[in-house]
Amino acid sequence: MSTYGFIQVPRDLKAAIPAVNAPTDQQLADLPSSELATFVLSYAMEELPQKVLNHSLRVFQYSAAIIKDQFPDWDLDLEVVFVTALLHDIGTTAKNMKATKLSFEFYGGLISRDLILKHSNGNQDYAEAVAEAIIRHQNLGDIGYITSLGLIIQISTILDNVGKNSEYINPKTLARVNEKYSREGWLGCFADAIDNENKQKPWGHTSQLGVPNFRDDVMANKLNYKI
Fold first, then answer.
1. Are the C-beta atoms of 156 and 66 separated by less than 8 Å?
2. Do residues 186 and 54 make contact, with C-beta atoms less than 8 angstroms apart?
3. What was the pLDDT predicted at 109?
4. Angle at 103 between CA 163 and CA 79, to 5 degrees
5. Is 47 exposed, middle or buried (0-12, 13-18, 19+ CB in 10 A)?
6. CA neighbours within 13 Å on the CB side: how many for 51?
């Protein structure tokens, strides 16, 4: 179960990482190449705009590096992290935004669960681990618990979008990831996605992050992603 992230960890990062290890300079992680991982990468390349695909790949790379440095005892399968990172924003595509009145994370979780069940010989633990993490990846806060998979996806998405959590990753690793997967135009792209959901679904879960505060936080991201 823990290989899929089904262990209880605090949502509060200070409790989850009580002593921050010095982040190491790491090379890019190899992309998983199983049949499922290859299928999901092809699916994401077809469905996601390039800026969103690059963001998703950065989230995977950040996650792999941060797990190695800050959570060395976890046995979370990096393939599961990879698949989750690739699918976490699948609900934001124009097609999927129009397909439902559900918040994008919730619909994205449902899409991902069905996709993985279909292409993993019905592996329910895998499918539900990914769905849970996607549904909760914007469920930020410091009360209660989350899965280890959900926590690392939260850490990495907020790092990429807002510039927080940089203390968990080495600046050289960060720069290497962003050199490989360009972030050109990303902040504006994500801010537009926030605006789009808040306009189309003003009841949506994104609104709990603050309207328009979260958009402003994204556009105010001043983290230096280069050396």
1. yes
2. yes
3. 98
4. 60
5. middle
6. 15
Cis before 72 (ω within 30):
no
Residues with Cβ within 8 Å of 159's Cβ and at least 6 positions away in sequence, in order, are 62, 165, 166, 168, 169, 223
Residue-by-residue DSSP string for the chain: -GGGT-SEEESSHHHHSSSPPPPP--PPPPPP-SHHHHHHHHHHHHHS-HHHHHHHHHHHHHHHHHHHHH-TT----HHHHHHHHHHTTGGGSHHHHHH-SS-HHHHHHHHHHHHHHHHTTS-HHHHHHHHHHHHTTT---SSSEEEHHHHHHHHHHHHHHH---GGGS-HHHHHHHHHHS--TTHHHHHHHHHHHHHHH-TTSGGGGG-TTHHHHHHHT-------
The pLDDT value recorded for residue 210 is 77
Residue at token pair 């090379």: 27
pLDDT reported for residue 7? 96
The reported pLDDT for the residue numbered 213 is: 83
Q: How far apart are CA 27 and CA 226, in angstroms?
A: 15
pTM above 0.85, yes or no: yes
Low-confidence ranges of the chain (pLDDT < 50): none
CA-CA-CA-CA dihedral for 221, 225, 226, 227, to nearest 10:
100
- Of 93, 112, 225, give the one whose Cα is nearest residue 171: 225
